[in-house]
Amino acid sequence: MIFLFYLLSAIMVISALLVVFSKSPINNVIYLIICFIAMAGHYILLNAQFLAVVHIIVYTGAIMVLFLFVIMLLNLNKAIIPQKSKITRLMAVITGGFFFLVLLAATRQTFEINPRYAFTSDIGLVSNVGKTLFHEFLLPFEISSVLFLSAMVGAVMFGKKDHTRDEV
Amino acid sequence: MDWTLYIYKTIFLFIILLVTLLIAMYSTYGERKVAAFMQDRRGPNRAGPFGLLQPLADGIKMFMKEEIIPLSANRALFILGPSIAMTTALLTGVVIPWGGTITIGGREFSMQIADLNIGILYVFAMVSIGVYGIMIGGWASNNKYALYGAIRAASQMISYELAMGMSIVALVVSTGSLSLHEIVLQQHGMHWNIFYQPLGFLIFLTCAFAETNRAPFDLPECETELIGGYHTEYSSMKLGFYLFAEYINMFISSAVIATLYFGGYNMPFIDQLGLSPNAVTLMGTAFFFMKILFVIFLYMWIRWTLPRFRYDQLMNLGWKGLIPLAIFNILATGVYYYFTELT
Questions:
Q1: Nearest CB to B121; choose among A33, A53, A66
Q2: What is the Cβ-side half-sphere exposure of residue B147, based on CA atoms within 13 angstroms?
Q3: Which are the contacts of B228, defined by CB distance < 8 A and separation ≥ 6?
Q4: For residue A158, how many C-alpha atoms fall within 13 Å in the half-sphere facing its CB?
Q5: Strand partners, B104
Q6: Exposed site from A150, B53, B87, B243, fewest CB < 10 Å?
Q7: How many CB atoms lie within 10 A of CB B81?
Q8: Chain B: which residues have CB within 8 Å of chain A?
Q9: Which residue ranges make up each domain of chain B?
Q10: How many CA atoms lie within 13 A of B142 on its CB side?
Q11: DSSP readout, B196-214?
Q12: How does pLDDT run across B70-121, given as a tens digit for each residue?
């Protein structure tokens, strides 16, 4: 188990770094897919099979396919990234570092050191996840579905043909 | 460590692998024979008696062909494409319950490699990864037609995955389990799910046709428009892998359909025959394979009967036909169980 954990972690960290450093966008997407599959492996190690499979279906199977889709359609074979000057890049690093510091300071207090539920081996099984979601977290769960609905309406609006232009 | 179980599982895994490959191989032969029968021809009849050695001859031909990787193709991804297609096709077989339990030397062994409590979702996960085989292969070929085929395949599979998932939701509501083993056990004694979920079955079947890229949904490899679709640039065994993966997918999806809707390895009147448990298991497995072969025949029957859809018709059917139907099916199932089980 320990060995598997380190193996999966190594795959995840290396592929995540390759996502950042690889030049070709298609390879970036593929490394991100590998990273996600390794993350699903971590879920399985925690005996959360439902989360692992849903993670693969949603992230690997749907979202990354769309990423790949866009990259293929735009034919971004070679990265065309405009080069910034040295000072701009340095400033970007410093600003990013400060932002990270602020985030860390803001979230440090909010993390619960002691988990609300003690870890048991069947906490991630589908029936337990479902019961928790639909009893304790029913309201947040339903509200997040409204978020999805608004995203869907937005997508339909984008997909609609632009009629105003025809009338003018 | 329970070594007998490990050894049994390993052997069983290899048997399933071999049976999968064998059935996929003979599906190509069956397809040509069925096509010939429907078109009033004789079909393959030169290699061996009744042309039974034809798949072997085809396989040898595939291996002996010259292997061409186009100069402008992305080499690594070009090889990765068919590998993903083949791997994901073979991985799905592990959650299917091929039979009941078999008793060897006083110990019971299950004829299922892994009884995951989320079995159906695992099948979906593998299907959704399978899209990459086609997409990456089509893109890496660096050919317009291959890219068109890949994009068609991906958008078709994503669209039909939704309706497929929703038809499964209704099934899960009525069975109350995601484990394939559990679902099969519940269908014992002619309580087949097809009688409880007829609409869901039709949606699932249609989507399974689309997911395996079979006619009438074989637009990704539509010869008249796209030459060969995503495998235009492929040759030799890499092309063989793509074609073979399609037949494996067909076999596995037939097995999933037989498991979910036709009672899996359950056989009618098996309790009345009074056989020993091992004989019952073997009979059940044989009956399961008969069901699978019937569904495979259905695939071929439809392929050689219906013409191919147009692309906009395909999308209309998926988004405006099947998805609303599937949502209605979920609602109807939910309402039915709300009023029958709670009162």
A1: A53
A2: 14
A3: B145, B146, B149, B221, B234
A4: 6
A5: B107
A6: A150
A7: 28
A8: 74, 77, 116-118, 121-122, 124-125, 127-129, 131-132, 135-136, 139, 147, 150-151, 154-155, 158, 161, 178
A9: 3-341
A10: 13
A11: H-HHHHHHHHHHHHHHTT-
A12: 887 778 888 888 888 888 888 888 888 887 777 777 777 777 787 778 888 8
Pair B36, B28: CB distance under 8 Å: no
Domains and their CATH numbers in chain A:
1-78 (1.20.120.1200)
Residue of B53, B128, B90 lying closest to B241 (CA atoms): B90
Whether residue B270 has pLDDT greater than 90? no
**3-state SS, residue B103:** strand
Tokens of B335: 């309402």
The DSSP line for B217-244 is S-GGG-HHHHTTGGGTT--HHHHHHHHH
In whole angstroms, what is the distance from residue B96 CA to residue B105 CA? 24
> Which among B74, B122, B151 has CB closest to A69?
B151
- Closest Cα partner for B211 from B170, B145, B161? B161
Phi-psi region of A16 (alpha: psi -120 to 50; beta: other; left: phi over 0): alpha
d(C-alpha B41, C-alpha B33), whole Å: 9
With CB atoms and an 8 Å threshold, state whether B118 touches A126: yes
**Start-to-end CA span in chain B (Å):** 48
Reported residue count of chain B is: 343
- What SS3 state is found at B101? strand
CA distance A15 to A22: 10
Residues 6+ apart with CB under 8 A from A124: A43, A46, A47, A48, A49, A50, A51
What would the DSSP string read from start to end of A73-108? HHT--S--PPPPPHHHHHHHHHHHHHHHHHHHHHHH
Give the closest of A49, A65, A73 to B116, CB-based: A49
Token pair, residue A1, equals 């188990």
Q: Give B148's pLDDT tier (boundaries 50, 70, 90).
A: confident
User: Which residue do the tokens 């320990």 mark?
Assistant: A2
CB B117 to CB A56 under 8 A?
no
Please give the structure tokens belonging to residue B175.
């069975």
Separation of alpha carbons B242 and B83, rounded Å? 9
Compute the distance between CA of residue B168 and CA of residue B261 in angstroms, rounded to an integer: 11
Task: For residue A152, name the pLDDT band (cuts at 50, 70, 90).
Answer: confident
| SS3 (DSSP) at B341 | helix
A49, B139: Cβ pair inside 8 Å?
Answer: no
Q: What number of H helices and E strands is found in chain B?
A: 14, 2
Whether the model clears a pTM of 0.90, i.e. scores above it, the answer is no
